[in-house]
Amino acid sequence: MIPESLMLERHTRLKFARSLSVFALAATAGLGLTACGGATSSSPTAPSVESIAPSTPTPTAAGNKSPRGNLIKKLGDPAGITNKDGKPMVNFTVNSITPDAPCTGPYPQAPQNGHFVVLDVAVETTPDFVSSQGPLTFDMGPGMMKFVGKNGTTYNGNLGTGPAYTCLPDTQMLSANGRGIGPAEKVTGKVVLDVPDTTGTLIYTNYLISNIGGWEYNF
What gap in Å lies between CA 169 and CA 90, rounded to an integer? Predict the structure, then answer.
């Protein structure tokens, strides 16, 4: 079995990448930002670029933000990050969230926290996904996720357990090589989380905008 510490390191080290003091990054606020339950979805598609302002996230209508200050997204809603000039750098879509998804990896194990939840994600970066220091990288892994239960309590456990990382083959995982997604790339893949329940809310916060909130998905 692959040591859990090695698998955790390759997916979380991007979170501590260099700070982007030269950027005023913004999370996009897509249309129809209401919670959506269920796990059905369409096939992964490249997300479209939204028209957004180069500022901190601002809801366009009541209910777009959660009480935690995150943008609420439905499955299939586009989301993204812009630079200080308002140019899109990253666009992504969570196409589905599937509880109790079967494991097809070479080293399947039972979940430690109770249930595997699999996110199907499409990501597209632009050539503007750079800083003055060079190309940037984007990732979406368990280390950037929180799980909030139906009772509103945030789970304190580790969502990126060893069994979660070995649940699916690396070829199906989003950025499984650990190098992240660089500029001008289009990638589809899955993210596996080890959670204590089959329903709740997932909060995703990328290190690029960790100081101004993130996105929430109800399932």
Answer: 25
Q: What token pair was written down for 35?
A: 């919670």
pLDDT of the residue at 42:
42
- Which one is predicted more confidently, 63 or 178? 178
Q: Which residue has the higher pLDDT, 6 or 93?
A: 93
- Compute φ and ψ for 212, nearest 5 degrees: -130, 25
Residue 22: closest CA among 130, 180, 125: 130
Inter-residue contact 155 to 140 (CB < 8 Å) = no
Task: Report residue 121 as tokens.
Answer: 């994600």
Strand partners, 131: 134
Instruction: Please list the residues that pair with 218 across neighbouring strands.
Output: 201
Task: With CA atoms as reference, report the closest residue to 92 among 71, 128, 122.
Answer: 122
The pLDDT of 53-77, averaged and rounded, is: 67
Q: What are phi and psi of 4, to 5 degrees?
A: -60, -35
Residues 6 or more apart whose Cβ sits within 8 Å of residue 142: 11, 12, 158, 159, 160, 164, 191, 192, 193, 194
pTM value is: 0.72
Q: Over the stretch 119-160, which tens digit does the pLDDT of each residue have?
A: 999 999 999 999 989 999 999 999 999 999 999 999 999 999
- Could you give the CA distance from residue 16 to residue 19 in angstroms, rounded to a whole number? 8
Is the CB of residue 81 less than 8 Å from the CB of residue 208?
Answer: yes
What's the Cα-to-Cα distance from 39 to each of 74, 160, 207, rounded to whole Å? 11, 20, 27
